[in-house]
Amino acid sequence: MTTHDLINPATGAAFGSVEHVDAAAVDDAVGRAQAAQRRWVRSAPAARASALRDFAAAVDAHVDELAALEVSNAGHPVSAAEWEAGHVRDVLQFYAASPERLSGQQIPVAGGLDVTFHEPLGVVGIITPWNFPMPIAAWGFAPALAAGNAVLIKPAEWTPLTTIRLAELAVHAGLDPDLLQVLPGPGAEVGERLVTHPGVAKVVFTGSTVTGTRVLAAAAPGVKRVTLELGGKSANIVFADCDLEQAAATAPYGVFDNAGQDCCARSRILVQASVYDRFMELLEPAVAGVVVGDPASRDTEMGPLVSRPHWEKVASYVPDDAPVAFRGRAPDGPGFWFPPTVLTPARDDRCVTEEIFGPVVTVLPFEDEADAVALANDTVYGLSGSIWTDDLSRALRMSRAVEAGNLSVNSHSSVRFNTPFGGFKQSGLGRELGPDAPLAFTDTKNVFIAVKEK
Ligand code: NDP
């Protein structure tokens, strides 16, 4: 085992450390998870439902503690971190109903009885990123456990603390300690071993498209089930016929939430040319009003970036000669602070085409609906987006034309646990959340039972 220092992004100072496991520990964890899964799936559906409700209750009782960990470890504003911990509780409660509801079909056939069963896959590996450690872990482990699987999670190296604590709370609530295990360590060693281990039946990966394609290739020889939630470069499309004040006032929250470290960030604002100047006049004070500062303060709306290397990546998109329209305020260092930044670049600039994953947004004018669709879809990504218009027919036309898995009209809403979430194109493969999520952690078995004629 090696020890890895943890850095507080708001101060740049080390505040703790975590023990990393190695590939051999993954092998050991898979064996124990397989045994725990067999015990779990043999228990009564009502007992599994009750265990997940108890887990939800344990999370609920520790929302403040979990939030405080995320403030220190990821720099999330405390109000956002509390919402994230509460979201884990809600996701667990939602999927706690599934063990007693996951039923197959009886299919009419000649000569007997035909039924289907949704069999759990066995052991599921979940690899999470550093931007939303708690929600993204729960989107995987809650439906996977509900469907009768055991789960191994490899959290991002920078932000493992809340995932470790959630697994402790599961044990505290009465779950078998081997049913939900956390394996902190480097992606290249621990993550890869999880993906290639023959005892892991499915991998759920959230992170960059580059690493996602590596995971997909590594999973292929074992014909593993894979769900990928990858990057985004989502459009916020503002038509002249919308409530322009509302569109401008909310645009910062559509992109600067979590300091822009959000795969659903609406990082390309597209504005109809006839209202472009007025929109920019309205956007400037809205951006200036974003409260950036101490994540522990309840007034804070935006914290620091997660790490020094990530700060450097984001800063590379805003060189001295960048087309900056205006910027908000941010504290000076130490800490990985970056001000909300609005750019007005050319259509083919790399800040328009590449995922920045920071508080940087581009604004481009468009002429008409066809131009808006062409611009919105001119990306390898297809995760999210917003359409602002008061014309219902236009809203529906645009909703069908924009290539993305999750769109909102006159809103920046992205993720609700009871609706499906996932990407088109290179933003991902498969869907998470929604009522059918547990099915993605099962294989369907068909059984025909011949009935003798008398
Ligand atoms: P990665 O995709 O590299 O990391 C995500 C997770 O995958 C981490 O837990 C990481 O571990 C793990 N991992 C890394 N390599 C492997 C591997 N070979 N096999 C299995 N698991 C692996 O993202 P980064 O943290 O490097 O971020 C880079 C960029 O990705 C960001 O700037 C952003 O653009 C994008 N991103 C997108 C996210 C999204 O939600 N769509 C989330 C995070 C990042 P480890 O922590 O050890 O590297």
From TrEMBL:
Q: What is the scientific name of the source organism? A: Mycobacterium novum
Q: What is its EC number?
A: 1.2.1.79
Gene3D superfamilies associated with the record: Aldehyde Dehydrogenase, Chain A, domain 1, Aldehyde Dehydrogenase, Chain A, domain 2
- Residue positions of the active site: 229
Q: What is this protein called?
A: Putative succinate-semialdehyde dehydrogenase [NADP(+)] 2
Q: Does the keyword Cytoplasm apply?
A: no
User: Sorted alphabetically, which Pfam families does this protein's record hold?
Assistant: Aldedh
Keyword flag Oxidoreductase: yes
Alphabetically, the GO molecular function entries are: succinate-semialdehyde dehydrogenase (NADP+) activity
**What range(s) does the Aldehyde dehydrogenase domain occupy?**
4-447
